[in-house]
Design brief:
The complex is a heterodimer of chains A (about 900) and B (about 120).
Chain A: H1 8-28, H2 33-44, H3 47-56, H4 61-78, H5 81-110, E1 121-126, E2 134-135, H6 144-152, E3 157-165, E4 171-174, E5 179-182, E6 184-187, H7 191-195, E7 201-202, H8 207-212, E8 216-219, H9 221-228, E9 238-241, E10 244-251, E11 267-270, E12 296-297, E13 300-305, H10 311-325, E14 342-346, H11 354-389, H12 391-399, H13 404-440, H14 451-470, H15 473-478, H16 481-486, H17 489-497, H18 500-531, E15 542-547, H19 554-569, E16 574-580, E17 590-596, E18 610-616, H20 620-624, E19 628-631, E20 645-649, H21 650-656, E21 666-669, E22 678-684, E23 699-703, E24 713-719, H22 727-737, E25 744-748, H23 749-755, H24 758-792, H25 794-802, H26 807-840, H27 852-878, H28 882-887
Parallel strand pairs in A: 2-12, 6-11, 8-10, 18-23, 20-22
Antiparallel strand pairs in A: 1-13, 1-14, 3-6, 3-13, 4-5, 4-9, 7-10, 8-11, 9-10, 15-24, 15-25, 16-24, 17-18, 17-21, 19-22, 20-23, 21-22
Helix pairs in contact in A: 1-2, 1-3, 4-13, 5-11, 5-13, 5-14, 5-24, 6-10, 11-18, 11-24, 13-14, 17-24, 18-24, 18-26, 18-27, 19-22, 24-27, 26-27
Chain B: E1 11-12, H1 17-27, E2 31-32, H2 33-43, E3 48-49, H3 52-64, E4 68-74, E5 80-86, H4 88-113
Parallel strand pairs in B: 1-3
Antiparallel strand pairs in B: 2-5, 4-5
Helix pairs in contact in B: 1-4
Classes of the chains: A alpha+beta (about 900), B alpha+beta (about 120).
Chain lengths: ~900, ~120
């Protein structure tokens, strides 16, 4: 039964009634009116107390007590706002950095895909593809025929889902008149249902959509938000993907951005079978696309374990099917060839890019843990210092009757306050930091902290809270009540200045400071080296964008490019224009062994014959600014009907045509029995192709007009002034030729190259930031502690000076102590730093892990901080009038 | 509960016994708080002194447990008063607690009146 709670007023009424009744009765018993009233009152006892107890009846007494403790702790913290602010800020910085990095690590390395039962999902991997196949990734991609045979069975895995991007970068789409670019994927009909992705608006695909190759699309929540401002009318709309119409039938749930982390998919369509929508945006290979070419292993697969089937069972059941399917449609299986082996990998959020992020993230995590450790030490030292000076206060409180429990409660509550405030601030830092980090790292998936991160942070905070409460306890309770009352402030604190715990903490901080300085120094030098690496070309003034014309006939396509180059060349401000197949500085390259003079070149044992090659247009080297060492550049006069020509770089000549003039020799790909062969007409200087940090490697170029496949190209333009300003007029030229074509990923060539080191730069910058943060914390902590230690010795200094010590001697005494601590700190820190340098080795560029300069600078830096931190207070102490110092006693 | 009354031989109530006394008193019929206090005092031949503040809190506690119910009414001498009466649950409680108490007091009686003691210690 629900009953309204009785009010305190009602209770007071009852007491009043009682007093009247009692008085009435007493009057009846013969007392006077006044006496009766007084007697009734007296018999009742404390009315207020009864009322208060009624009030407290349903309340938790300890909560009330806690509120009182909280108020008290707040008051006592407010008395030293400097201390409170420093402690809270220090904690917030340390904890915030930790939370942010852990949050990124959680999103990248720990989190599972945001789908139904991710633990039952597996990514399919193969040990190797069969010989005679081309892959996108040696271990992660499969052919369409493998997908079909695996998905047609249903005992081990059910269902098997395949997905493949429509382009290596972005694909051309058009909603209205203007073409634009988006990230699109072709997926199997079971993709959404099999993953268990929520489709709140519209529907996902069905297996029938896949077999019909239906022109339907599901767009992602992010894309819907970004592109359509969550307009619900987008359902049923038709848009064009590479000029093929697709109808939007669904919008995926928030949080699902495709199965691979790092980038987000904008839309999905069922697997198609038309050349315009080939996998990866490739042109058909001799008329074959991904569905008809069993030699092209280009699809990724994810699957759900069939109900009641374990991973091992599923694998055992599928292995024979896979090994059979792997060779379907291939010419022959070689005798000695090892069959490919299927394996499963966890459905992690950042599948496929874990390796790229794992190492730097672990190092960053270690760094921020170090920063947190420093921050915690700082706060502990602050607390110890503060509570040591409060010994008298505690003594007095004990003497006045406070229990030790009450003091403990006060310390706990103060620590609780500090930790809560610091934690809240840290969380704010972390949320902002992850957002910025995501932008810097160009990770489109969400890195925001989630519940796991919250638990991690709360756990760390709880630890910090206990630490902060317990650390000062020893100091606080060191003196008994009477001792504290008897002794003066100065002498009761003298011991604290020399306490062993304090010394150990200072040494620890100095050691950590050395580690951070060395690590930060190495990474910053790496960053410098990367940024200043010469590219071997004149990169400024270049702008690049992608073009993918939908022209099935190769000669017509060549005409298209010839026209395009011609039209772009005459735009005002343009110096020269060329095209290339693989974009410079995009990590992509074509690689294969090459025949030189119709045979595989001799190479020293074990060295590779691999050549990175590219397809280039006229004036290629003069446009990108690479010097031609001998011979000539490609020209408009190199056409399909003129002799086939090729250009190589220095490294190619050195490796495969040593000691001869390479001009006039030939090279060609190691297939088609050497039918295609190019006469070398030029040798160019080595320059960077895929990325900034690559080593020189043999390179060769074909002229686009002379080879039988063309497909998508990148246009490179050298212009006067800001290169990006040419884009609107270039866009107009392209759209006049084909209204469906957007400029794909337009960017300056410099920025394009910088994307290849952005991760290292980001890593180095972050590490530098954390290193700097750590050093600032160490410096302030050291200064605070050393200054405090010195000030505690004011009385001692007074005595020394009174008995004749000179100022210099006193200062030296203090400095000697600090230098000793620094020495020990360095001795401990340097080996630790060497370990860290070793761990960093893979992330370094152009600098050795044992870089002497970095170590020297670190040691000098630490010593400088320690000296500065102790010299100032030492000088101040020494300039104190001895009599005054003695009087503080 | 400590009171200022230190000049008589009344006994302060043991913790937990007050509830039983209230239930027993109300078993005789519904009554207001002041009446309950008086009745306890009178029926114990003035031995028990009931701290009035504690009494009202105890009444409230019993009411919260639904062992007694309360209603504002008018006393015989026309005063407003809150009348308490025993509920069915309260009657059960009374039987149970009374039984408990009788066992306890019998055991106390056995020990206090008996001659046995720790062997060897008895003179």
């Amino acid at each position: 039964m629900f009953r309204r709670k009785r009010t305190a007023h009602d209770f007071a009424e009852e007491i009043k009634a009682h007093l009247e009744l009692e008085a009435d009765q007493l009057k009846d018993e013969g007392l006077s009116e006044e006496d009766a009233r007084w007697q009734a009152r007296r018999a009742f006892g404390n009315v207020r107390l009864a009322q208060e107890r009624f009030y407290l009846k349903d309340r938790w007494a300890f909560l009330d007590q806690a509120v009182r403790d909280l108020r008290f702790a707040l008051r006592s913290l407010r008395q030293s706002p400097g201390f409170a602010a420093t402690a809270i800020l220090t904690l917030a910085l340390g904890m915030g950095a930790n939370t942010a990095v852990f949050s990124v690590m959680n999103a990248v390395l720990l989190k599972s895909l945001p789908v139904d039962h991710p633990e039952r999902l597996v990514f399919l991997e193969t040990s190797n593809p069969p010989r005679g196949t081309g892959t996108v990734d040696t271990h992660l991609t499969f052919s369409y025929s493998v997908y079909q045979s695996l998905s047609s069975q249903n005992h081990g895995l059910s269902p098997v889902m395949a997905y493949v991007p429509l382009s290596a970068s972005k694909v051309a789409v058009r909603f209205g008149a203007e073409p634009e670019e988006a990230e699109g994927e072709m997926v199997s009909g079971t993709f959404f249902s099999g993953l268990g992705v929520n489709i709140p608006f519209g529907r996902g695909f069905s297996p029938k959509d896949e077999s019909d190759h239906a022109p339907l699309a599901v767009i992602s929540y992010n894309y819907w938000t970004r592109r359509f401002a969550r307009d619900p009318n987008v359902l049923g709309k038709t848009f064009f993907v590479n000029a093929i119409p697709m109808t939007i039938i669904g919008i995926s749930g928030q949080g699902f951005e495709g199965v691979e982390g790092g980038h987000s998919t904008d839309f999905w369509i069922p697997l198609q079978n038309r050349p315009e929508l080939n996998a990866w945006g490739n042109p058909p290979n001799e008329g074959k696309i991904y569905t008809t070419d069993p030699t092209w292993w280009c699809m990724r697969m994810i699957a759900r374990l069939a109900p009641g089937v374990s991973r091992e069972q599923a694998l055992a059941q599928l292995q024979p099917t896979f090994q059979h399917a792997a060779f379907v449609g291939l010419v022959m299986k070689m005798e000695d060839e090892k069959p490919p082996v299927l394996s499963f990998a966890d459905a992690k959020n950042f599948y496929g890019s874990e390796d790229t992020y794992a190492k730097p993230l672990h190092i960053l995590m270690a760094m921020v843990c170090l920063v947190l450790l420093i921050a915690l030490t700082n706060v502990v030292m602050l607390l110890m210092a503060r509570n040591a000076t409060r010994q008298r206060e505690f003594g007095l409180r004990l003497a006045l009757g406070a229990g030790r429990g009450a003091l403990l409660r006060l310390l706990l509550m103060e620590s609780f306050l500090l930790v809560t405030a610091g934690g809240a601030l840290a969380w704010t830092f972390a949320v902002a930091a992850t957002r910025i980090l995501g932008q810097w790292a160009q990770i489109e998936s969400s890195l925001a902290p989630d519940r796991t991160v919250l638990l991690f942070t709360l756990g760390a905070l709880a630890l910090a809270g206990v630490l902060f409460a317990l650390a000062p306890m020893r100091v606080a309770f060191a003196g008994t009540a009477e001792l504290a009352l008897r002794t003066s402030a100065a002498t009761s604190n003298a011991d604290a200045g020399k306490s062993r715990t304090g010394r150990v903490l200072v040494i620890l901080q100095l050691a950590m400071c050395v580690v951070l300085l060395v690590g930060g120094g190495l990474l910053i030098r790496t960053m410098r080296n990367l940024e200043n690496t010469p590219l071997g070309m004149k990169v400024d003034g270049l702008v690049v964008f992608g073009i993918k014309p939908n022209i099935p006939s190769v000669p017509e396509e060549k005409m298209f490019y010839q026209n395009l180059i011609g039209k772009l060349r005459i735009l005002p401000g343009v110096e020269s224009v060329t095209i290339m197949n693989e974009r410079l500085g995009s990590w992509w390259s074509n690689n294969s062994d090459m025949l030189v003079d119709h045979r595989l070149p001799d190479v020293a044992n074990g060295t590779s014959r691999m050549v990175r090659w590219n397809i280039a247009g006229p004036d290629f080297f003069s446009t990108i600014g690479v010097p031609v060492l001998s011979g000539r550049d490609f020209a408009d006069s190199d056409t399909a009907s003129s002799p086939m020509v090729g250009i190589i770089n220095e490294e190619f000549a050195k490796r495969f045509l040593p000691n001869v003039n390479p001009l006039g020799h030939t090279f060609g790909p190691d297939f088609d029995n050497g039918k295609i062969s190019m006469t070398i007409v030029g040798v160019v200087k080595n320059h960077k192709y895929r990325s900034i940090d690559e080593e020189p490697i043999p390179m060769a170029w074909y002229m686009y007009a002379q080879i039988p496949v063309v497909g998508a190209m990148n246009v490179e333009m050298r212009v006067h002034g800001d290169p990006l300003l040419i884009l609107p007029s270039a866009r107009k030229v392209v759209q006049q030729m084909d209204p469906n074509l957007p400029l794909i990923k337009p960017i300056t060539q410099r920025d394009q190259f910088n994307t290849t080191i952005s991760q290292q730069i980001l890593f180095a910058r972050l590490a530098g930031c954390f290193g700097f943060l750590g050093i600032v914390l160490v410096a302030t902590g050291l200064y605070g502690t050393l200054a405090y230690r010195v000030s505690m010795r004011t009385a001692e200094i007074g005595v020394r000076m009174a008995v004749g010590a000179r100022r210099g001697q006193v200062v030296w005494m203090i400095l000697r102590d600090s230098l000793l601590l620094t020495g020990i700190g360095v001795v401990i820190g340097v080996p630790l730093a060497m370990l860290v340098g070793h761990a960093l080795a893979a992330s370094l560029y152009g600098v050795k892990p044992l870089d002497a300069l970095s170590y020297m600078l670190a040691v000098v830096g630490v010593t400088a901080v320690a000296l500065a931190a102790s010299a100032l207070p030492a000088a101040r102490a020494a300039s104190v009038d001895p009599l005054k110092a003695l009087r503080t006693e | 509960m400590a009171t200022q009354n230190n000049n008589d031989d009344r006994i302060a109530l043991l913790q937990g016994t007050l509830d039983l006394l209230i239930l027993k008193t109300l078993a005789l019929g519904s009554c207001h708080g002041q009446g309950v206090a008086r009745l306890i005092q009178r029926n114990s031949e003035e031995v028990f002194f009931v701290d009035h503040g504690s009494l009202y809190l105890a009444l409230q506690r019993l009411e919260d447990k639904k062992w007694i119910s309360a209603q504002w009414g008018v006393s015989e001498n026309n005063r407003k008063a809150r009348f308490y009466s025993l509920t069915a649950a309260g009657r059960e409680q009374l039987a149970e607690k009374a039984g408990e108490w009788k066992r306890l007091s019998r055991a106390m009686g056995l020990i206090l009146n008996g001659t046995m003691g720790p062997t060897g210690e008895e003179a």
